[in-house]
Write a structure and sequence with these properties.
alpha/beta; 16 strands; 9 helices; Rossmann fold; six-stranded parallel beta sheet; seven-stranded mixed beta sheet
Length: about 300
C-alpha cells in the first residue's frame, strides 16, 4: 500500500486529500519509482482549481527518486537507478509510474530535491530563452523572476552571456532574492513602464501583464510567452516597433525534438555542477501538507521551488 494525494471536487488547496491505495505496477516502457521529491507547479495548481480532469483525480507532475521495478521491455534503466521525470498520474504519491521517454538519470553530485527543482523548470527556462534566438550581450527581462522557472531563467540568461538582466516580480519583498541570483535590476510589475527597453522578455505571467511586458521591448525585440495565463495585445503594438511574440511549449520539444531536450538537460546539469546555476527551494513539505504547498504557489509568495517529500 502507499499514500497519494487526490481531489474529488475542483477548488482551492483545501480540496486535496491524502488517501491510501495499492502500489501501481509499471506497464510496457514504464518504471516504478520510490518517490523522494515532487515539484509543485502553477499549471498543476490551476488544474485543481479550474478543472480539466475527470473526478476524482490524482496529480501528475515532476518527480524524482529511486527505481524499484521495471515494466516489460525496459532496458535503459535498472532497479536502484536514481532518476527524475514527468508522470501523468499519482505524482503526489509514495510511488510513481514514469514513462521511460520522460525519464532521465540524476547525476551523482545531485539530490532528488535538486532534480525536481532544476530539471523540468530549467528546461522550460532554457527553452524559452533559446526560443528568443538570443545574441550574446543582449538585455533580458524575466517576469515572475522569483518563481520556480523564473529564478532559473535569470541565472541562465547571465550564464549565457546576457549583458543586462532585469527581474520583474509581483512584490518588492522578493527583490533581494532576485538580486542574489545575479539580476542587474529588479522591478515590480507596476514599475515596468520605467524599465529601459530590453531586447528579450521571457514572460511567465501573461494576462494583464502581457501588454506592459511587450511595451518593455526595444524596437526589434522578442517576447517569449510560456505561461498559461493567457492575455491579449494589439497587433499594432508589434508593427510599430517591429516586435515579435513567440509562444513556447516544452511538450512540443519533448515530442518532436528529444535530442535537443537532452542537450539542454546536459547543459543544466553541467551549469549546476559548476555552481553557475543553483536551484533554490523555497519550502520542502511532507505529503500531508500538499494543500499548504498549493497555497504558497497560489499566493505567489515563493522564492524558488516548492517541493513535496513523500518519504
Amino acid at each position: 500500500m502507499m499514500r497519494r494525494v487526490r481531489y474529488h471536487e475542483n477548488g482551492g488547496p483545501e480540496v486535496l486529500r491524502v488517501e491510501t491505495t495499492d502500489v501501481p505496477t509499471p506497464g510496457p516502457g514504464e518504471l516504478l519509482l520510490h518517490t523522494e521529491a515532487v515539484g509543485v507547479t502553477l499549471p498543476v495548481v490551476r488544474k485543481v482549481r479550474e478543472g480539466g480532469l475527470a473526478l476524482p483525480a490524482s496529480l501528475g507532475g515532476e518527480v524524482a527518486g529511486e527505481v524499484v521495478a521495471l515494466g516489460p521491455g525496459v532496458t535503459d534503466f535498472a532497479v536502484g537507478d536514481r532518476v527524475t521525470g514527468l508522470c501523468f498520474a499519482d505524482g503526489y504519491a509514495e510511488h510513481s509510474v514514469l514513462p521511460v521517454a520522460m525519464t532521465s538519470p540524476i547525476p551523482e553530485h545531485a539530490t532528488a530535491v535538486d532534480a525536481v527543482a532544476l530539471v523540468r523548470s530549467g528546461l522550460v527556462a532554457l527553452g524559452a530563452y533559446e526560443a528568443a534566438r538570443p545574441a550574446e550581450g543582449e538585455s533580458v527581462l524575466v517576469t515572475a523572476a522569483a518563481s520556480g522557472v523564473g529564478h532559473l531563467a535569470v541565472q541562465l540568461a547571465k550564464a549565457r552571456g546576457a549583458q543586462r538582466v532585469v527581474g520583474a516580480v509581483g512584490s518588492a519583498a522578493k527583490a533581494d532574492f532576485v538580486r542574489s541570483l545575479g539580476a542587474d535590476e529588479v522591478v515590480t510589475y507596476d514599475g515596468l513602464a520605467d524599465v529601459e527597453p530590453v531586447g528579450i522578455v521571457l514572460d511567465a505571467v501573461g494576462g494583464e501583464l502581457l501588454s506592459p511586458a511587450l511595451a518593455a521591448l526595444a524596437p526589434g525585440g522578442r517576447l517569449v510567452a510560456y505561461s498559461s495565463g493567457g492575455g491579449t495585445f494589439e497587433a499594432y503594438d508589434l508593427l510599430v516597433g517591429a516586435k515579435a511574440v513567440i509562444g513556447f511549449q516544452m511538450a512540443l520539444i519533448a515530442r518532436h525534438r528529444p535530442a535537443l531536450m537532452e542537450q539542454w538537460r546536459r547543459e543544466l546539469w553541467e551549469l549546476h555542477a559548476a555552481g553557475r546555476v543553483r536551484a533554490h527551494v523555497h519550502a520542502e513539505l511532507p505529503l500531508e501538507r500538499a494543500a499548504e504547498a498549493h497555497g504558497i504557489i497560489e499566493a505567489r509568495v515563493n522564492a524558488g521551488k516548492v517541493v513535496l517529500r513523500p518519504v
